[in-house]
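fyi for ur records
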Amino acid sequence: RGIRMDSQKTIHSLFEQQAQLQANKPAVFFGSDCLTYQELNERANQLAHHLIHLGAIQNRPIAFCMQRSVDCLVTMLAILKVGAGYMPLDPTHPKIRLLSLLKHSESALLISQSKFADKFTAFEGKLTVLENAQLDTYPKHNPNISVFANFLAYLIYTSGSTGTPKAVLIEHASVLNYCSWFAEYTKISAKQCFDFSSNHCFDMAVTVTLIPLMLGLSLVICEEATKTQISLYLDYLNQHKIQVIKVTPSYFKLLLQEVQYHKMRLPSLKHIILGGENLSSKDCKAWLNLSDNRH
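which gave:
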């Protein structure tokens, strides 16, 4: 892939190198839409220049609230490009929780889609509604901003199920270390395609969002309605020839049951990454015993 992973790199600089090396390669598919690496980089740059205009501060969080979409990836990259850390907010959460997290994190900037803007009428910072931001008027080139590996990359809050939600802060260097290990351990090839169906407000989603883009791979964004119906999700994996997925063990069990019952084949699927819950060795063995799904 022509990218050297070293301590001086950042998440977005690796992505920018991929955009330079393979500008016309598909970066992301969503429905019938496809963005190349160059197109995704340019859209992220335009939003980054908008954030600079708004006074984005380095090493501080910038929040965003939106559904899983191309906009989501554009926003994550744009925030990283200005030297800030992204803080994802789940649009399904109550308004009071979202406002509480914004206040606790001291986020002065918030990016949202228009359908969720009403949740933030009480937000005291600057709100950017993507559809109204006139991003086409901003430059498409990479911002000339120094960002270092020890800068904040993202901030994610725990669920708060055992009390008050706690903030977890991750630096660029940690993501680079994980990316280097992941590429080496999985032996991912440049032609493989990732499924982005995880909730981007959880840490586990980094594997199916930033990591593929740092490695020059393609990803497909899965509609929520597809992910919630196991049969549709399996059809989606086959239709898009998905090679890498990341799911929870409980969802994996449902996949296993569906594949066993319908005797489905998934010839393209090479890697299943599991995390977030206790894993049953029985389910893993059952999957490996399926004749066409031995990865």
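The longest helix spans residues 37-54. thats all i got for now
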